[in-house]
Structures are given as structure tokens and as C-alpha cells.
TrEMBL record:
Signal peptide bounds: none
Record PROSITE patterns: DCUN1
Compartmental location: Nucleus
GO cellular component: nucleus; ubiquitin ligase complex
Annotated function: Neddylation of cullins play an essential role in the regulation of SCF-type complexes activity.
Keyword Nucleus: yes
Name of this chain's protein: Defective in cullin neddylation protein
Organism: Tribolium castaneum
This protein's record includes keyword Nucleus: yes
Length: 239
């Protein structure tokens, strides 16, 4: 009997140890799951605290050029990278080089990003938006009002060329020639109608200009570009 009793006590002790170990494992696992869920869930408070890292006490609700530089450095993206334009589009930011608190929370809230790591994870998603023709068209049109001087109705030529290079430089075979045309032209600004038609021209007109209709409703700027390009090619052929 005593020996049997000792075995029973040992078995009970072993069972208690097993139950305690199992409980500890469950609690530890639960804590890990909670931490993962917390890391994955979006927190507006955390997002706003992140925003404040780039603002100044004098203007806590606006992220300006200096803050923008640090923000770009933190997420590992050059300020001139097209992905920054896509991000501004998601925020519907009104002015280039600035994000307001409302714009920041709107854009990053939609993407559920409240930290550097989460936004870095979403950069490929932002780049992929450029592959959708309809979304690209919306971003292209947005870029005009975003980049132009708000005191002017048209975009100055220097800014227009920089934005065209960013958006069309790698995708439009005639971009280099069009840029050269602008350099020698009389145009000092680009209006919104011209801006929008440049995209349509780049998408629909063949590189050899064979489908260009001289009686089409293109802006005079593009008619002049076609004339200039044909003359340049004729001259090159003679040479």
C-alpha cells in the first residue's frame, strides 16, 4: 500500500507539472498572438504620433519640406521617386512638399499603415497602381494641380518637364523628342488641356506618327510638335 501510494503521489505531481507547463505554454502563445495582432492592427493614435516625428512645435499639423526629407530617408525612398507622387495621390495632398495631418491620416489610414515598416511593406502596392491604366490616368491628372504653383492657373515649363519625365519618361518612346521640342519652343507654361492631351497623345499616336490626324482636335502645341518632329526626321534622313 505505501508503495502504491507513493506512486500515486508521484503521478499526481507529474500531472500537475504537465498542467502547469501546458497553461504556461497557452499563456505565452496567447501573449505572442496578442503582440502580432497589435502589430498588424492599425492605430490612428500611433499613426498620428508617427506624423508628429516630422513636424515642428510651431506647426504641428503640417509636415513641411524638412520633415518630408526625413520621412523619405526613413522609408528609404528618394523624394523624386514616382512612388512619392502615388503616396501623395492616396493622401490627396494639395501641395507638393507638404502633408497636412488630415491628408496623412486619410491616406495612411486607408492603407492601414501606422509605422515605417508597414508603409515600406506597401511600397510595391503603390508602384503597382501605376500599371493600371485608369489609375495611372487619375494620378497623371492629379499631378497637374498637385505640382503647379497655386497662384498660377498653368504649370511653369520647368515643373511640367520634371513631372512629364517622372510619369512618361520611361514609357513614352517620343518623350525625349517632345522634351527637345519644348526646349526650343515658344511655350513657357502648360495648361491643363495641353497636359491631359499629352498623355492621350502618348497612348494613342504611333511612334512613326502614321495614325496622326492633322484635322484632329489636338491642341496646337501637339500639332506643332508633330510638324517639328517630321521636319527633324526629314533633315536627319537627308544628312
Amino acid at each position: 500500500m505505501p508503495r502504491s501510494k507513493r506512486r500515486s503521489t508521484t503521478e499526481m505531481s507529474s500531472n500537475e507539472d504537465d498542467r502547469y507547463a501546458s497553461k504556461r505554454l497557452r499563456n505565452s502563445s496567447s501573449r505572442r498572438v496578442s503582440r502580432v495582432e497589435e502589430a498588424q492592427s492599425f492605430s490612428q493614435k500611433r499613426c498620428l504620433a508617427w506624423f508628429r516625428e516630422y513636424t515642428t512645435p510651431d506647426d504641428p499639423d503640417t509636415l513641411g519640406p524638412e520633415g518630408m526629407e526625413k520621412f523619405c530617408e526613413d522609408i528609404g525612398v528618394e523624394p523624386e521617386n514616382v512612388v512619392m507622387l502615388v503616396l501623395a495621390f492616396k493622401m490627396q495632398a494639395r501641395q507638393m512638399g507638404f502633408f497636412t495631418k488630415e491628408e496623412w491620416l486619410r491616406g495612411l489610414g486607408e492603407m492601414q499603415c501606422d509605422s515605417i515598416q508597414k508603409l515600406q511593406y506597401r511600397l510595391d502596392y503603390l508602384r503597382c497602381l501605376l500599371n493600371d491604366q485608369n489609375v495611372f490616368k487619375a494620378i497623371y491628372r492629379y499631378a497637374y494641380d498637385f505640382a503647379r504653383d497655386k497662384d498660377q492657373r498653368s504649370m511653369d515649363m520647368e515643373t511640367a518637364k520634371a513631372m512629364l519625365q517622372l510619369l512618361l519618361g520611361k514609357h513614352w518612346a517620343l518623350y525625349t523628342q517632345f522634351s527637345q521640342f519644348l526646349d526650343q519652343s515658344k511655350y513657357k507654361v502648360i495648361n491643363k488641356d495641353q497636359w491631359c492631351n499629352i498623355l492621350e497623345f502618348s497612348r494613342t499616336i504611333y511612334n512613326d506618327l502614321s495614325n496622326y490626324d492633322v484635322d484632329g482636335a489636338w491642341p496646337v502645341m501637339l500639332d506643332e510638335f508633330v510638324e517639328w518632329l517630321k521636319a527633324s526626321r526629314a533633315k536627319a534622313a537627308i544628312s
